[in-house]
Amino acid sequence: MRGSFLFVFGDLLRRALRRPGIWAGFVGAVTLAAVSLSALVFLQTDGMDQGKSREHWYVLCTLSVLLSEKSINALAWEIREMPGVIGVSFRFAGDTAPGYGMVPERSLIVRVRDESTARALAVKLSSKEGIEATETVHYLSSPPASLPPLSRLLALIGLIFAVFVLLLSGRTAFGWLLKHWGREWELLGAAGLSGWERMLPLLALSLLCGLFGGLVYLALYLGLRGYLGGMEAVRQVAPGYFKAGVFPYLLSFVVAPLLGLLAGGVGILSTLLSPRRLPELELSEG
Amino acid sequence: MFGAYEIAVQVSELRYVTDEGVAVFDGLSFSLPREGIRFVVGPPLSGKTLLLKLILRELRPTKGQILVAGKNVLRLSPRKFRAFRKHIGYLPYPPVVLEGRTVEENILFKLRALGIGGEQGEEGLQKALSLTGLEPLRDLPVEELGELQRVLLGLAVGICNDPPVLLCDDPFRDITSQVDKERLLRTLEAIRRGGISILATTREGELLRRSGVSEEDMVLLRPEVTV
Question: How far is A180 from chain B (nearest CA, A)?
Fold first, then answer.
């Protein structure tokens, strides 16, 4: 049974490769659908805050040179627990602090919610042991690059278009194949092979095309990641692209073959159900 | 696959009514003995192809029984029938020949698709070429075959896996020459002598009578069924 399947599949493949362009198109359509699906998943869209800058307040605490690392750590934890504090971070002398520049001594940056908290905390911390001086710092940060919500809709439309192209190319590829392998199809039927047995090699071919499409997608994904990773705007617009985990592999080895199988199956069935499938074979009038 | 049987095909009280309510067969009965030959004779639209489709279980009769090589084909499970069906030789109309291949490659295509290779495959190929007289043409591309030779190739493909029964749908239909029709008839007789029972449909009742086929080897269908 396996031998006969391999024989029929090999014969089918040889016939298919007489028009490699059609199959390259089908593989390309699978890749396009995978890329569209990725775009929908990876693209970062922003909502109401689109384009607005953010205001930040913090208290810069200059630490005493005598303070040990352990004491600094304990002090940071103590400040962290104070009301209105969002977070505490450490800077060595010579490091930079946002909206301030280079800090001259070891310092703690105490991020707070608003101006009044910052001013009150600056007064409070200035009298604390181990802190030489405090200063409130205010700065505005530009928002991360993001796309408008409409772009997600456009990505969805792109995906629908890609699926349409995929179905169309599946219909074209398998329509051509069944026309040029139609006599073999009929002979197998006359030999007693059931419709399912005859369809299996065709479905295997569509699965194979889907797998190739997935591999092309994976090659593009991995190939472009290094190049696009250096572009800050891309990192902000599509952060998921750089920390996608198993998603691209899942898309390549599972989703893309299934897309190929689906498009191939639809192409095969629509060709077989079409009355113009095999114009050269007449119907008997017996 | 096949136990002892005396009747290759037994059709009993066959009734087939179309969706439009037309009774194409109403109590049709006949039998084809093992290693025998029967011609189902009737004009166009008399149900000849339909009868073969019923035997091949591509359609279900309204009533009746069909036995092939001792098996009640209507009662076999789908899985068993799929296996059994591969052992029924079938020459459809028009005969299916694979363009761009030689005579031998056409026969080998079916054998390999059925998983028959090696010595058994070689035997099947030789027997099919020998019984149909296509041995000298085995390396000839199909495009160079004449109308009779195409039908002979269809027969060779039908019998290459040594089926107990060969069903032929209108094998004489595209053959214009009387000489070729008689040669085809002799080939069918040779296949029968080779141990394969034959049930063939045809419009050529006169040809059969002229060639000495007895009335008892013919099943006459009603002249016309209007659907």
Answer: 10
